[in-house]
Each structure stands twice: as structure tokens, then as C-alpha cells.
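Title: Prediction job returns without error message
Component: structure pipeline
Severity: low
Priority: P3
Assignee: unassigned

Description:
Job completed but the reporter wants confirmation the result is attached to the right record. Sequence as submitted:
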Amino acid sequence: MPRSPRADPLSPRTVSGLARIASRRETSIPRCGLAAQHHRTAVLDMSDLARDPAVFIDNQFIHDGRVVGVDSIVASPRLVVLSDFLSVAECEALIDAARPLISPSLVMDERNEGNVVHSTRTSSGAYFPFGASRVADEIQRRIMSLVGLPVDRAEPLQVLRYGPGEQYAPHVDFFDIDEASGAMSDEDATTVSQFGQRVATVICYLSTVDSGGATVFPEIGLEVRPHPGRAVYFTYLDEDGVADHRSLHAGAPVHAGEKWILTQWCRQRPYRAAVTQL
């Protein structure tokens, strides 16, 4: 059976039990069960870490000449929901660039023998290595400026499309310890040794969705509904290399229409990928 990060089925609480939508200025959700929710990966240099989302404490700020709204801040995981991070024109341009390139999204087979299509991740997607698209390069530059890391720490920007019934089951974005073996898989350990751990994620919504398709953080009861230009920025490693499992998140099923998002993963060290397909 293919291996996928935290590929648990969406529970009823995850899909329908969340009434909150990124309400303005969410604050300090207490840390609980730290021993179970966190594990140490490696001690990090401060220059490896992304900017703490808590710095965006005002209702809005100017970023790259654009007024960006702050809709929600969460303490654990360190997370901020932003409005108007991208313009509608930029969202449409990125969708237009990705549409002819998309193919079924893949996950790694649990035996690390190759990428496969699997029901835990049913989107289609395309990615843009640096230099492949002017609009993607500009958006990636702006994202990495927000995150506070050099642009060479960015993995290729991904654009994903979810149609009716498609979803991404709950998962964490950092390379996790396998619960059975108590160690990373060989494949994960290799990429971490080369490029460092993932330290942050930015999700930007490129379209509205007729029904469904929210990003759900089940450990904290937070649901973020798609809206063009909205972004979620969250980090999951601290200066001691402790990973926060409360960053567990899922793409809830789309019920009607289609959802377009971009995802940007950020690494500790410079990253250049030769992969050409999700």
C-alpha cells in the first residue's frame, strides 16, 4: 500500500465539525500533550528558520508594495491567515500557466520504489522550477520574502487542482519519523541530508469553490475556506529542531466546482530539484 504522510481518512470531526473559518485574530491555543505531539529532528541554526508568523500582529501590513490583511493568528502551530496576498489577476495568470501542464498528483510507494497514484491524494498538479514561468517566479520570490528565507531554499512552486470528490488526506509537510520503525524512511533521510528539513509551508488559494474544499487543521479545530488571494503561512520547526504535529492538515473534499491552490514548501538549505512531475 502506498506511503503517504499521515494518510488517515478524513474523520467526521475533520470535515463537518468545524464551524470556525479563519476568524480574525485567533490567538494562543495552548500547547497540550507535547511529548505526543512533537518530536526532535535536529538542532537548527537560527538562519535555517522561517520568519515567525506571530510577527504579523497588525490587522494589515505592506508587503512588496501591496496591502495584505491579517485575518487570523495561531500560536501552535505557528500560523497566520492572510487576505489579498495575491491579486485576482495573478491567481488567474498562474492557473492559466498550470492548466495545460497538470497531471495526477503522486505519493511515494511505502517500499520507496517509486511514485504512484493513490486515493489519499486525488488532485492533479504541475510544478514550476525556477525560470520556467515569469509569473510563478515572481510569486515565489514574494512568498520567500514573506517567509524570510533566500529564494534558493524554495522547492519548486506547485499548483494543484481539485475537482468534485477530490481531496488530500491529513498529513504533515515535514519529513516525519515512521511510527513503526522509529526512524525516517531511507528516501526521506536522504533528502533531509541533502537539502535539510522542511521548515515552513505557504498555501495560496487561486479560486473560489462552489462547495467544500477547505483546508482543515484538525488538531486545532481550524478551517480555512478558499478565496482568491488568501494565503495560509505556517511553520513547524523551532530552534531546537522540534517538529509540531499540530500542523497536521488536510484538503477537505470538493463537493461542487473546482479548487485551485499553490503550495510552496521551504527548506533549511538550498534546494534544486530535477523532478519534472508531481
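Comment from assignee: result matches the submitted record. Residues 134-147 form the longest helix (14 residues).
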